[in-house]
Specification:
The complex is a heterodimer. Chain A is 6% helix and 30% strand. Chain A has helices spanning 23-26, 126-129; strands at 9-11, 18-20, 29-34, 41-47, 50-51, 56-57, 68-70, 76-77, 100-102, 108-111, 119-120, 123-124. In chain A, a hairpin with a 2-residue loop joins strand 4 and strand 5 (50-51). The N and C termini of chain A lie far apart (64 Å). In chain B, the strands form four sheets. A six-stranded parallel β-sheet of chain B has the order 5-2-1-6-7-8. Chain B is globular, with a radius of gyration of 26 Å. Classes of the chains: A mainly beta, B alpha/beta. At the A-B interface, strand 10 and strand 12 of A face strand 3 and strand 13 of B.
């Protein structure tokens, strides 16, 4: 099946950029998508993951961005604003260790970096000396 | 159990009898199934450690041996590289162990040993003499080359049950290939039958978190227990066991192998529907249960499983969603199990659920007497009284890390319940205990081993 006939892939009729439409966002969708290659706006509809006709040129603003895109010669397009942000577990997860001192139910947990002085053997001293 | 108590149990309802004999608040008062068995685990990641952990939860004294200071690689894996528990070890207290280490290392004693040093090999041989079970998942033949493989173990201890776990086995064309859970799923065929049909995008999907590793660990653990039975009741001999991850994954193709053998048909992916039964699948509920949550996972719309494959249940389902004509169009299971029929039926369920949360959908199905279940996330599972009461989830006061929620073997035993005493420990936390108790080393010898970076 060529890309131009696929449902969850929108190959831009203007610039041939392959815009991947992630199923979760686009499974049932009717709206406007901005091409990650040339910023052209396309009206597009999907029902249960099936396209309801070819994309039609539309006017801004767009409703959604593709999840991922590649140029017609397979170069990835990952620029912010061109494709949707990557899925995050939580907005405060930033790829760095999160120090915590309490569990989700408010009790003490050893979730922060320690020094040698904080230990008795291999165990955090705080569980012996009180929190 | 005394005569007075057993008389009482006979008088109870079956539910009360189960609640009494499986009372999880009493599990620490009862004996352990594998008490007296000693296992050494020189395993990494999930496949090997999970096997050893199942033995440990059943009461075996399980010693995990890792490389000094940093430990095994799974300690350094954690979601998005963020959550850690501290310390990693007494030598690196500012580093933590990642949450990927959870769930496959409870109840174990932790020893550090550098196998590259000859003295370490001698220590392993001392341990081998006193061990019932040995688990490892290094590349096939590595321990044999180092002098602590099965052949060398059996010379020291002919009763040892030696379990090797890995990707492709110790022999065969693929023996030198590395393997991971996902590779096993890919090679074993699981990927090909999980995910979306080509008409719906065609993307295959892996089966959740390292399921092949955990399943492989469970299979290996029961193999070990079977061999211990054979050793102690039949033969007085040990055993060499080999578990290959890709063969385990291939087992998940179940009847589809027979289907291919009989008809030449290659099984397709069918998403969240069931090729054998209709209706028996998951529908999308259009409203989020937590629309104001900060967490994107909670903001998303919900999903609900429903089973209504019997004709009367299907008719009932069609009444619930206001589509009695569907029941007339597909009155029997044979009418509706085909792919075309399912492609017509499920979208109608999705349309009906488009303005409902998964809880609302569940309520409607429950009122109609249909078997159903909302798809719960980890937060919802964590808050379920059923799991906590029955002991498969537990908050524990871990002696090293404090208040942590963990999972316990989900099998209830009336006389010898499994239990989790601690989630895991830092690298080398029990060096002194193991080297003194099992190897007979003095304090000064133990210190010397540490200074030479052997432990």
């Amino acid at each position: 099946m060529p890309f131009k006939e696929a449902s969850l892939i929108l190959q831009c009729p203007k610039c041939d950029t392959i815009n991947y439409l992630d199923p979760f966002t686009f499974w049932n969708f009717k709206g406007k998508i901005k091409c990650a290659g040339c910023d052209a706006i396309w009206e597009y509809a999907l029902e249960n993951g099936h396209r309801q006709g070819p994309p039609k040129e539309g006017k801004p603003p767009h409703d959604k961005l593709p999840g991922f895109a590649q140029s017609k010669d397979w170069k990835p397009i990952t620029t912010k604003g061109k494709v949707a942000d990557a899925p995050q577990a939580r907005e405060d997860f930033q790829g760095k260790p999160i120090p915590i001192k309490k569990s989700v139910r408010g009790k003490a947990v050893s979730g922060s970096p320690l020094t040698g002085d904080d230990l008795i053997g291999s165990i955090p001293k705080m569980f012996y000396t009180g929190i | 159990m005394t005569a007075a108590v057993s008389k009482n149990l006979k008088d109870m309802t079956f539910e009360d009898f189960c609640r009494t004999v499986f009372d999880t608040t009493k599990r620490f008062e009862k004996p352990e199934t594998l008490k007296g068995i000693r296992a050494v685990s020189t395993t990494q990641y999930i496949l090997g450690p999970s096997c050893a952990s199942y033995l440990a939860e059943l009461g075996a004294e399980t010693i995990k041996v890792e490389l000094p200071k940093r430990g095994e690689p799974m300690r350094h894996t954690t979601p998005f590289n963020e959550p850690f528990l501290y310390p990693l070890s007494r030598w690196m207290p500012d580093k933590g162990t990642g949450l990927g280490f959870f769930g496959a290392n409870p109840n174990e004693y932790f020893m550090s040993l550098d196998f590259h040093k000859p003295e370490a090999i001698q220590i392993m041989k001392r341990l081998a003499a006193k061990t019932d079970v040995f688990c490892e998942n290094y590349r096939a033949g590595t321990f044999d080359r180092w002098g602590i493989g099965y052949r060398q173990h059996a010379q020291v201890n002919p009763r040892v049950v030696y379990q090797w776990m890995g990707g492709f086995g110790g022999w065969g064309p693929g023996r030198n290939r590395a393997s991971y859970d996902i590779l096993g799923q890919a090679q074993g065929g699981c990927f090909s039958i999980t995910g979306w049909h080509k008409e719906y995008g065609g993307m295959p999907s892996k089966q959740t978190i390292w399921i092949m590793d955990y399943w492989g660990g469970a299979i290996s653990a029961f193999n070990i227990i079977a061999c211990l039975y054979w050793r102690d009741n039949v033969s007085n001999k040990g055993n060499f066991l080999e578990y290959s991850q890709v063969h385990g994954a291939q087992r998940h193709l179940t009847d589809l192998i027979a289907l291919y053998g009989r008809t030449g048909i290659v099984a397709q992916r069918f998403g969240n529907w069931e090729p054998l039964l209709c209706v028996h699948g998951i529908l999308k509920c259009g409203k989020s249960s937590y629309p104001n949550s900060k967490n994107p996972q909670e903001q998303e719309v919900g999903f609900c499983f429903v089973s209504a494959y019997k004709d009367e249940d299907f008719a009932n389902l069609c009444k619930v969603i206001g589509k009695p004509d569907l029941a007339k169009k597909y009155p029997t299971h044979a009418d509706r199990v085909g792919a075309d029929a399912q492609s017509a039926i499920y979208p109608e369920l999705d349309k009906w659920a488009a303005d409902k949360t998964k809880e609302q959908v569940w309520e409607e199905f429950k009122k109609a007497g249909l078997v159903s279940q909302p798809v719960w996330n980890s937060k919802e599972v964590s808050s379920q009284e059923h799991f906590h009461l029955r002991g498969s989830l537990a908050w524990i006061d871990d002696p090293t890390f404090g208040d942590v929620q963990t999972q316990v073997l989900p099998c209830l035993m009336s006389e010898t319940p499994p239990r989790v005493r601690w989630a895991f420990k830092p690298v080398g936390a029990d060096n002194e205990y193991i080297l003194a108790k099992l190897c007979g080393f003095s304090g000064s010898k133990i210190k010397e081993l540490e200074e030479k970076e052997i432990t």
